[in-house]
TrEMBL record, chains A, B:
<dbReference type="Pfam" id="PF12710">
    <property type="entry name" value="HAD"/>
</dbReference>
<protein>
    <submittedName>
        <fullName>Haloacid dehalogenase-like hydrolase</fullName>
    </submittedName>
</protein>
<dbReference type="InterPro" id="IPR036412">
    <property type="entry name" value="HAD-like_sf"/>
</dbReference>
<feature type="signal peptide">
    <location>
        <begin position="1"/>
        <end position="22"/>
    </location>
</feature>
<keyword id="KW-0378">Hydrolase</keyword>
<dbReference type="GO" id="GO:0016787">
    <property type="term" value="F:hydrolase activity"/>
</dbReference>
<keyword id="KW-0732">Signal</keyword>
<dbReference type="InterPro" id="IPR023214">
    <property type="entry name" value="HAD_sf"/>
</dbReference>
């Protein structure tokens, strides 16, 4: 009797299930060919029994961070953190004033620091981030993230993230994709906030690094950050980092600059699996920044934009494709 | 009516559920303090609402491979693979005969090759594994694993694994632990078989590596294995590798030699979380090998065995603790 009474309600509930799943997974994206391309790709590779189906363990997606998941203007945020650290630490390290990158920094020579895709900036980062334990470093980053604010948006840096990209991360994970960060930023820096901000755990972050040093000190294990064996996870370094850390070829890659071109090429060209490449093109000076077409800017997007049509990459026009930018 | 008829059966089923969960998760382990220590630790950290509870995302366990998950005698298996490769490749590379490690190899000078925890062997590995794409390398390893046999056990090397450790991996994963390999072996080598043999995916393997080189060749992305930036994931390198690749401190570490001591120290000493360290002591010459007490042997276990009681590490006596060794 109870069963019979329940039956109509169960059927009613079942009837609404497809509607529940039909909720727009990317509400901050305007409808159009780019949003459609994302959804088509995800639906294609998750449809069992088709030649395009990709098993769950191979659903690897990789995301650049600076300029792809969060802003990178007026400078990549880790550079702003390093600048704040340098100001604090410089009085105790007069010898650093001889370092060409520090000199460039003290002259605010952004062009020199940004040359070779931030080589100078990364050296400053290495200098200001070494000689301490990872726990001390984490504490400093946490403190900075809790207090520092973006100069234009007047909010914590962890809130200068792109709402449409947060939705994309969730959408991919809901379809059993792993979502990895593959960024030129320092891996220890990103690990402090990526879990809370993006839902990406420390073990799914590939970034620039120097090796720590291990020793037993007073009977306790101690790691110390160094500047040894610096690996820069940018340009051709990105596929190298992906192979070394992850060991699988991604099927989807998301970036915003020439620094991401090699990663997207590695993901999409000659891949036996269906694959997807996407570039976030910064076109909205009003709501964010329109900087990537300027060959002198950080986050330069020239060659990657040129090859995009040839390889079928989706180029997101922030101004037109995104309803909302910051949450 | 249907509901009422079903009810007694449902209750009966529910009554048996606890019994189902009481099935021995480690059937190849003899009952005793070591088996109990493992189960006590897992039950302790998974019991919600207690101070010892560890959230799922922090349940990281790390396993050495050679001598911990599979045999490492008469030589670590990757060294046997490298020897087979070297025999094949040497006629085309006469210049290699000048390399001190190759010389030691050609004289079968195992002591020289094994000195400094296999430094010479690792150089041979680097030499025989470089200049090809990871895909070519994977194909060679697969081919070797499919045909080569262990000289004593007369079975494929992937079947020379420890049944009790396979059960331990499953038991930890059933309790939402991540099970990582942290081994001196080459990461590209282990990634070929670890998923099929241990259920450990490529992205949860930390090993020795050289960086690959990335280039676009005839319009296609190509990775090439090199001998550049060799990182040896052994001794103090293990905590370094764990920090760099994984970015979380493990709460359980499993090894069998002095090469694992730093990793187990890093896991168990001064860890704010409850932690567990275990050493597999090779004591069974009849069913496997009893080699680790010999200071000249590969897989030497001396200092790590000395400090084990002080740090409360569990020392598994293979002869007495394991009912079965190979599956």
């Amino acid at each position: 009797m109870i069963v019979r009474t329940c039956l109509p309600f169960c059927l009613l509930f079942a009837a609404f299930l497809p509607l529940a799943f039909a909720v727009d997974p990317l509400p901050s994206w305007n409808d159009g060919p780019n949003k459609k391309a994302i959804i088509d790709f995800v639906e294609k590779v998750t449809k069992a029994g088709t030649p395009d189906f990709v098993p769950v363990e191979e659903r690897i997606s990789v995301f650049d961070n600076d300029g792809t998941l969060w802003c990178e203007n007026p400078l990549p945020f880790q550079a702003i953190f390093a600048a704040d650290e340098l100001k604090t630490l410089l009085p105790d390290h007069p010898e650093w004033r001889e370092d060409p990158s520090v000199k460039a920094f003290l002259k605010s020579d952004i062009a020199a620091l940004s040359a070779n895709h931030y080589k100078g900036l990364l050296e400053i980062i290495a200098l200001t981030h070494a000689g301490i334990t990872p726990d001390e470093f984490t504490a400093r980053v946490k403190q900075w993230l809790a207090t520092a604010k973006h100069p234009r948006f007047d909010r914590p840096f962890t809130e200068c993230v792109y709402q449409p990209m947060l939705e994309l991360l969730s959408y991919l994970r809901a379809n059993d994709f792993q979502t990895w960060i593959v960024s030129g930023g320092g891996v220890d820096f990103m690990r402090v906030f990526a879990e809370g901000t993006y839902g990406i755990p420390p073990e799914q972050i590939i970034g620039s690094y120097s090796l720590v040093r291990f020793e037993m000190k007073d009977g306790k294990p101690v790691l110390t950050k160094t500047v040894d064996s610096l690996f820069i996870d940018d340009k051709g370094g990105k596929p190298v980092g992906i192979h070394t850390f992850l060991g699988r070829r991604p099927i989807a890659a998301f970036g915003n600059s020439n620094g991401d071109q090699a990663m997207i090429e590695y993901t999409t060209i000659d891949n036996p699996r269906p694959s997807f490449g996407l570039i976030v093109h910064h076109t909205d000076a009003e709501r964010e920044y329109a900087y990537d077409a300027n060959p002198k800017s950080t986050g330069k997007l020239t060659t990657a934009l040129e090859v995009a049509p040839k390889y079928g990459w989706t180029v997101v026009d922030m101004k037109n494709d995104w309803k909302t930018i910051l949450p």
